[in-house]
Amino acid sequence: MGSVEADIQLIIRYYTYSNNTKKLKYSEREKHIKLGGSFFFIVRRFDGMKQSKNSIIYGKSQIGEGTVIEDYVIIGCPTRDELKSGMIAGATIGKNCTFRAHSIIYSGVKIGEDFFCGHNVLIREKTTIGNKVLVGSGTIIDGATTIGNNVSIQSSVYIPLNCVIEDDAFLGPRVVLTNDKYMQRGAELKGPVIRKGARVGANSVILPGVEIGENAVIGAGSVVTKNVKPNTTVFGNPAKEVVN
Question: Could you tell me the CA-to-CA distances from 100 to 8, 51, 71, 155, 219 in Å, in that order?
């Protein structure tokens, strides 16, 4: 059995906005309800996967067979625009994925097969992730990012908007990618590009728009301010090439 569309409705959770109190009132029913001035979230469950009763799947999310979803995981979390409209597209999850407790996957995220994430992972909208990807506990992927196959992202990594991480790349614990060169609201956001097979050591910082070449190695604790050529090793602050 392949990917199953979330078309089994068990619970309706919806919010009604009160003009008097100016607050959202939460309600829950076991059947489809339509109310004037209301919008609602549809919580769905699937056959062919292991899902905690404390987890939530929103909208038209699709979940592949063999996937495990632990306690308090949210799949298809609505974006800001979807909160306003009440129309939630949901996320697309491949086969045999595992989501550990308290992780949140936004609507509009697409994840391939054999994905594994640790606890408290956040993946925002418009992110695409390939097959056999590992994302460690506490990592934040802030959206609009493309991640290839066989990528290993260790714990507490920060990946901002508009990054590219190609196949077989490795990001060590607490690596920080940045995308805002001038640190101003409204500025162009351009994240780094991590090419195929590149390895970035723990606690390194990659500045906006920097490209790390194929199979390059970034030593732990480095601050990378310029492009790194393929098959080279750099380290330091600012990072400089190691001469053999």
Answer: 23, 11, 7, 13, 30
Output the six-digit token pair for 110. Answer: 């697409």
- Per-residue pLDDT of 169-178, as tens digits, reads 999 999 999 9
By CB atoms closer than 10 A (0-12, 13-18, 19+), residue 216 is buried
- Interval 15-58: pLDDT, tens: 444 455 444 444 443 333 333 333 334 445 555 678 887 888 98
Element housing 58 (H / E): none
Exposed, middle or buried, 177 (CB in 10 Å: 0-12/13-18/19+)? Answer: buried
Q: Please name the amino acid found at residue 95.
A: K
Domains and CATH numbers, the chain: 1-114 (no CATH), 162-244 (2.160.10.10)
